[in-house]
Amino acid sequence: MDSDKYKTIKEKTISEGYYSEKRSKFLAFVHHVDSVEEALEIIKEYRKKYYDARHCCYAYRVGFEGTEFRANDDGEPSSTAGKPILGQIDSNGLTNTLVCVIRYYGGINLGTGGLIVAYREAAADALANSAIEEKFIEEEIKYTFTYPMMNDVMRIIKEMNPRIIDQEFDNTCEITLSIRKSLAEELRTRLKKLSFD
């Protein structure tokens, strides 16, 4: 695995999944999130929207290394909801991802095994309907140069293809670039060399 690559849900998309067992309905929703705060905001919205549901269970994993995560059973027996949901996020190799599963109780207990299957399947269905994309961890590089160096700088940009975030061209020019982390050092070195040529 490349150390600067990660998989996540496409931004600004919400996918849904559904599972039902013994009249209990499980509605699952998948979101791209960039922070724990954002995940908690979305969970709050679901609790409000589905206030009449018995449970709003969820799991999220956040950060490029996926180090921040949480699985919540929301009153279901321990590890029967949040953990199976998180398991689905992990088996898809995702981060910056939140999955919420809303349960409407159907009047018949499913038992711990039944609950684990239900939450896992609802989450799996929603993730199967998701647009998953591969992204790179990027590093920003700011470079200041004189106007006569413009052509050389632009040639390196054309060859290495970083994203131009900001640019100012005057007697002294400044450009801010964003490039895949594994290529950042090479870009820095090549730009630095221009100053000495």
How would you summarize what this structure contains?
The chain has 197 residues and is α+β, with helices and mostly antiparallel strands. Helix content is 35%, strand content 36%.
Overall description:
The protein is α+β, with helices and mostly antiparallel strands and 197 residues long. It has five helices and ten strands. It has helices spanning 36-49, 82-91, 111-128, 150-160, 181-196, and strands at 5-9, 15-21, 24-32, 55-62, 68-72, 97-104, 132-136, 138-146, 163-168, 172-180. β2 (15-21) and β3 (24-32) form a beta hairpin. The model has no long low-confidence stretch (mean pLDDT 93).
SSE diagram, text form:
Layout: E1 5-9, E2 15-21, E3 24-32, H1 36-49, E4 55-62, E5 68-72, H2 82-91, E6 97-104, H3 111-128, E7 132-136, E8 138-146, H4 150-160, E9 163-168, E10 172-180, H5 181-196
Antiparallel strand pairs: 1-7, 2-3, 3-6, 4-5, 4-6, 8-10, 9-10
Provide tags for this entry.
197 residues; alpha+beta; 5-stranded antiparallel β-sheet; 35% helix
Give start-end ranges of low-pLDDT stretches: none
Order of helices and strands: EEEHEEHEHEEHEEH
Distance from N terminus to C terminus (CA atoms, Å) equals 37 Å
Query: Nearest-angstrom radius of gyration?
Result: 23 Å
| Approximate helicity band | 25-40%
Bin the strand percentage.
35-45%
- Total DSSP helices: 5
Structural class: alpha+beta
How does the major sheet shape up?
Answer: 5 strands, antiparallel
* Whole-number mean pLDDT: 93
Number of strands: 10
Task: Describe the global form.
Answer: elongated
Strand order of the largest sheet: 2-3-6-4-5
